[in-house]
Amino acid sequence: RRPADTEIDWKAYMQEVEGFVNGTLDYTQLKGDTGPLVYPAGFVYIFLGLYYATGRGSDIRLAQYLFAGLYLLNLLLVFRIYCRTSKVPPYVFFFMCCASYRIHSIFVLRLFNDPVAMAILFLAINLFLEERWSWGCLLFSLAVSVKMNILLFAPGLLFLLLQRFGVLGCIPKLCICALLQVVLGLPFLLVNPVGYLTRSFDLGRQFQFKWTVNWRFLPEEVFQNRVFHAALLLAHLAGLGLFALHRWHSSKENILTLLKDPAKRKPASPRLTVNNILWVGSKERGRRQGRAGRTFAWIVFIFFSSNFLGVCCSRSLHYQFYVWYFHTLPYLLWCTPTTKLAHMPKVLLLGVIELCWNTYPSTVCSSLSLHICHGLILLQLWYGTAPSPVSHTPPPSRKPTAMSKKAQ
């Protein structure tokens, strides 16, 4: 027998999609038992396919099988990213696969749309690692169209595009992202453009205090206060600025040089631990593989840290939001140097975070513990990737080469 709570969000999703099937193109009129539709158009199309595949949403067991397949695909994409960087010890993958009841519930029991968005996002990151930037931007935008939390990765993507292509080369990639959003939302934009934009991209939406996981220790009036929301936004922007200036940027030149043509910039400084620590290439693999490994680790670090900063400063985290960053936590914990004795504290941090997310309803203790764990990870990322005061012998200079068609 399926648990009764399986039907709550799934049924609402199907009701929202059914309104579209019945010809409703006014986004403000698409509703379910849990309220109005608040996701972009990509969500409608993907769950429309699930709607028909499961007999108009009636075969929940089949939907769970499909989401179990999505769960395995998501793990495959995550493992492929981790294998490219070789920073996480193998035993940690056990915790990622088997030790999270909450993640299994989000995927297979509750059938949320968050896992769909994250799986597409991890596919996009795999494409970025393959230097397929245009296809990666297309998939990134598709993930945004399923759920807007993917925008937490957007500052990292913008930084990488500027670093890789410069401001002029970055514009076509951003146009790909924007164009897909327009194409997907076009049927709704033609009927009620304001209604579609305000519903699907509502950045000011209020959250209910009873569902919050991270701010339970605050009084409800503070949690709902707009000044508190503005303070979190400022903290988020400040964190992104600090990481972009001092942890993501690896060149001796000013960060404004990202706006230049990449061929006219100085080579990256080898002093930054982000380059030297995040990847330690073996001598046997040669310089070329070492350089590629450093690039992979640098890209993943920027994406995952960008998202993590957003999670830390979120106005509210609900239980399904755990999937936003669960699969990135091992990398964030092990991307910095780790002695043999330091492995256990990192495993302990993973365990405490898991315990916080499995405490229902959340308590003052669980929400405070979650913030403490997030703070410790941030401190490790900041100090563990700090620039080294001693400069080593720079790598041999290379003449700028023409950009490959694959990268374009």
Protein architecture, described:
The chain has one domain (7-264, 288-383). The chain has 16 helices and two strands. It has helices at 7-21, 41-53, 60-85, 92-98, 101-109, 114-129, 133-146, 154-191, 193-200, 220-223, 226-248, 273-276, 286-312, 329-334, 343-357, 364-384, and strands at 31-32, 35-36. It has a two-stranded antiparallel sheet with strand order 1-2. Helix 2 (41-53) packs across helix 7 (133-146) and helix 15 runs antiparallel to helix 16. It is globular, with a radius of gyration of 22 Å. The model is unreliable at 269-286 and 388-401 (pLDDT under 50).
Could you write a compact summary of the structure shown?
Its EC number is 2.4.1.258. This protein has 16 helices and two strands. The protein is mainly α and 408 residues long.
Chain-wise SSE layout:
Blueprint: H1 7-21, E1 31-32, E2 35-36, H2 41-53, H3 60-85, H4 92-98, H5 101-109, H6 114-129, H7 133-146, H8 154-191, H9 193-200, H10 220-223, H11 226-248, H12 273-276, H13 286-312, H14 329-334, H15 343-357, H16 364-384
Antiparallel strand pairs: 1-2
Helix pairs in contact: 1-2, 2-7, 3-5, 3-6, 6-7, 7-8, 8-9, 8-13, 11-13, 15-16
Q: How far apart lie the N and C ends?
A: 51 Å
The proportion of residues in beta strands is: under 5%
**Helix-strand string:** HEEHHHHHHHHHHHHHHH
Share of helix, binned: 55-70%
Low-confidence stretches: 269-286, 388-401
- The total tally of domains equals 1
